[in-house]
Amino acid sequence: MTAMYFERFDTPIGILTIAADAKGLRHIEFPSNRHPVDRAYWQSGAQGKCAEILIATRMQLNEYFAGARKTFDLPLAPEGTLFQCEVWRTLATIPFGETWSYRDLARAIGKPDAMRAVGAANGRNPLPIVLPCHRVIGADGRLVGFGGGLPIKTALLRLEGAQFLESEDETAVSATGDLFG
């Protein structure tokens, strides 16, 4: 097993954990994740290519949060099934500030009847924000599930100026503070 290096840094949505190996960026984790990753082989103190990837990731995410970046240019190396990887690649095509439904995403990969499978793959995305799973919403325009929680999804969509319908769970955003003013 190759070494996986990680670092944590503070952002407007809380502390993010990023992890990379020599192949590229492997994980971006929110303060609380629905599907935690086994970190048994993760270590700090990256050097060389891993350090470069982590530094670039931190810099680009900070630019995104500052409103100065709309796309990412990072070496990505998510691991998943062929289907999951296809869904994740397609997430990267959703433009900044736009939202798609799960049906839109299923159609984009050529599997219009696979909405549930697309939803499951979307929920297992190991590189949220960079592969923008937060841009996938319900067919009625409302926010639905998100591995980092709906308050974070709301904050990311607001940062991007995306249109969506407020849901009853929106009150959770006020409880955490106005994440992006």
How many strand segments?
Answer: 6
- Output the number of helix runs: 6
Radius of gyration, taken over Cα atoms and rounded to an integer in Å: 16 Å
- Which assembly state applies to the chains in this document? single chain
Q: Approximately what portion of the residues adopt beta-strand conformation?
A: 15-25%
Molecular structure report:
The C terminus is likely disordered. By secondary structure, the protein is of the alpha/beta class. Strand 1 and strand 2 form a beta hairpin. The strands form two sheets. The chain has a four-stranded mixed β-sheet, with helices on one face. The chain is built from six helices and six strands, in the order E-E-E-E-H-H-E-H-H-E-H-H. Helix 3 crosses helix 4.
Compact description:
This protein is an alpha/beta fold and 181 residues long. The protein has helices at 48-65, 82-91, 102-108, 115-123, 150-160, 171-176; strands spanning 4-11, 14-21, 24-29, 42-43, 100-101, 136-137.
Task: Detail the topology: elements first, then pairings.
Layout (H helix, E strand, L loop, with lengths): L3 E8 L2 E8 L2 E6 L12 E2 L4 H18 L16 H10 L8 E2 H7 L6 H9 L12 E2 L12 H11 L10 H6 L5
Parallel strand pairs: 1-4, 5-6
Antiparallel strand pairs: 1-2, 2-3
Helix pairs in contact: 3-4
